[in-house]
Write a structure and sequence with these properties.
Elements (H helix, E strand, L loop, with lengths): L1 E9 L4 E9 L2 H4 L8 E5 L8 H5 L2 H5 L5 E5 L15 H16 L9 E6 L1 H12 L6 E5 L16 H11 L2 H5 L5 H8 L8 E7 L5 H15 L2 E5 L5 H14 L10
Parallel strand pairs: 3-4, 3-5, 5-6, 6-7, 7-8
Antiparallel strand pairs: 1-2, 2-4
Helix pairs in contact: 5-8
């Protein structure tokens, strides 16, 4: 595959940003005249955009498919237009696809656009799919932070982290009543479930977010047709490496021909 470390000035964020982009080889790219499907692959809270390449066999798994994979850096923003900070949801949902589709042979059609992520990135991918269902064919969450609205009531959360969430979301009440609340988005989308993207959720049974994933899927799994995968595993790269491989197949991406 072809790997690009892409830098540009983001109007949404007001700074230079870095995005990692995986593309098929020219041989695979030229097998069809159509533009490429694209997976927006999102990192977790303590990571950056380099970690998917550093910690998994992503490039090896992706070589089977005629697709692009875009990995942006968003710091600790929770993929959110922050109450006190930059507009990261605008960046990842609006600006980034437009820039990628301008510079690379990437399709702008809903059927060709996907999102996935781990932990904070799982929250981000689900927010993209639930908030912009007309733009994504499918989304996947691995160990996702799917019930962020309950964080203020979690005794395991320290004061520093809750203050950070206040900076991002504007406080507990503001978060619960906004489109940053996945449950709020899911309830709204459940009124027209035929408009929802396909949804893949995976979480290990030893993961500290397992209860939140179970709760979210129990509430909205049937209404939105969520495909839920659980197995022994914790909040670790072993689990995420396994499920990014499974999700790439689950997305039903076009396969590359004659890949050795």
């Amino acid at each position: 595959m072809t790997f690009t470390d892409f830098h540009y000035f983001s109007d949404a964020l007001g700074v230079q940003v870095s995005v990692h982009v995986l593309l098929p080889t020219m041989e695979v790219l030229n097998q069809k005249k159509s533009k490429l499907p694209c997976l927006y692959l999102l990192h977790g809270l303590s990571d950056d955009h380099t970690m998917w390449m550093r910690q998994t066999r992503l490039e090896f798994y992706a070589r089977k498919y005629r697709t692009a994979i875009v990995m942006p850096a968003v710091n600790r923003s929770f993929y959110t237009d922050m109450a006190q900070g930059a507009k990261y949801f605008t960046f990842v949902s609006e600006e980034l696809p437009q820039v990628m589709e301008r510079y690379f042979p990437i399709s702008s059609e809903r059927k060709d656009r996907f999102a996935a992520g781990l932990s904070m990135g799982g929250y981000g991918a689900m927010k993209l799919g639930l908030r912009c269902p007309d733009r994504y064919a499918a989304v996947a969450s691995f160990s996702g932070a799917l019930e962020m609205e309950k964080s203020w009531q979690d005794s395991r959360r320290g004061d520093d982290f809750l203050r950070e969430l206040d900076t991002v979301f504007g406080g507990e009440k503001a978060m619960k009543n906004s489109d940053n609340n996945l449950a709020r988005l899911a309830r709204r989308l459940a009124k027209t479930p035929e408009a929802a993207p396909r949804i893949y959720v995976a979480c290990g049974t030893e993961d500290f977010l397992f209860e939140a994933n179970n709760s979210f899927v129990k509430s909205f799994g049937k209404k939105l047709g969520i495909e839920y995968f659980t197995e022994p595993g914790a909040h670790t790269w072993d689990f995420w490496d396994k499920h990014i491989e499974k999700a790439l197949e689950w997305f039903r991406l076009p396969e590359a021909e004659n890949v050795w």
